[in-house]
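User: Predict the structure for this protein chain, please.
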Amino acid sequence: MEKNETLTIYRHRYNWLRKLIVAVIYGLFSAIGINLFLSSAHSYSIGIPGIAQLLHGLLALNQINFSIAGLVVLLNIPMVIISLIIFGWDYTIFSVVAVISNVVFLKIIPEEKLISEQITNTLVGGVIIGIGIGLCFRNGFSTGGTDVIVSFVQQRFRKNIGFVNIIINGFILGATAIFFGISGAIYSLLGMVVTSYMMDKIYIQQSDVMLIIFTKKSAMLANHLRQYTHGATVFNGRGIYKNQETDMVITIIQKSEISFFKDLILKIDKKAFISVQTTDLLNGNYIRNFY
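Assistant: Here is the predicted structure, written as C-alpha cells:
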C-alpha cells in the first residue's frame, strides 16, 4: 500500500472518530443544558429538544407522563428519513449518534435546580447547548431534528444557521406564550438567541473571507490552488518600492480554511504578503466545503 493511501485511510478514520466524539459531546451538553438549567427556568431549548420539552409540559397538564427523551426519539424519526434523502448516510449517521447520545444523557442526568435565578439558568443553558450544536455543524453533521432543515437552508440559500434557527423556533415561542404565559416565552426567546449566537460563533465554515496574496511566484501558487474547490484570479502588477514585478492573487475561502491556505502559500513563497478581509458573498460560482 502506498504512503498516500495509508495517510488517506488514517485521515478518514480520524475524521470518523472525531465526529463520533463530537456527537457524544453534543448529547452530553444538550442534556446538561436542558435538565440542569433550562427546565428549572421553565425555558425551552431550540429544535426538537425544545418541542419535546413543550410537549412534555402540555402532556403533564393533562396528567400524561411521557419523558422528554422518548419524545425526542419519536420526533426525530421523520427528520432522520428526510436527512437520508437529502444528505445521505455519511451525514445522517453522525446525526443519529448525536440524537441517541442526547436521549441517553437525558435519561442519565437528573433534573436538578443548581441555580435559583431564572435568567442565569436560561443564559447558561443556552450557551452550553449552542456550543454543542455549533460543534456538530462545524464537523459536518447536524444534531438531527429541525437542524436537518437548517442545514439544507444554510447550504442552499447561504443563511447563517443561528438566524434560520430563530425563524423555525418561533413556533415554540408562540406555543409557550399561549400555554405557559408570556414570561416563559420571553425567557425561552432569550435562551434561543444566546444559543443561536453561540452556534454562529462556533460554526465558522459559514463565514467567508477574501484572501489576497502578493507574490512573485504566482505560477507555482496557481498550480497548487487548482487542486482545491475555490477558484482564484491573478492580477499582474509591479511593486512601487523596488519596481519589481509582483502579482496579486485573490480568492474567496471559508474562515476555517485560513490556516491551511496560509501554510500552503508560505511553503511556496516564504516572502508572500497575505491579507485576509471579511466579505459577504452575494453571487457567483462559489462552493463551500461542509464535510
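Residues 126 and 195 are 5 Å apart (CA to CA).
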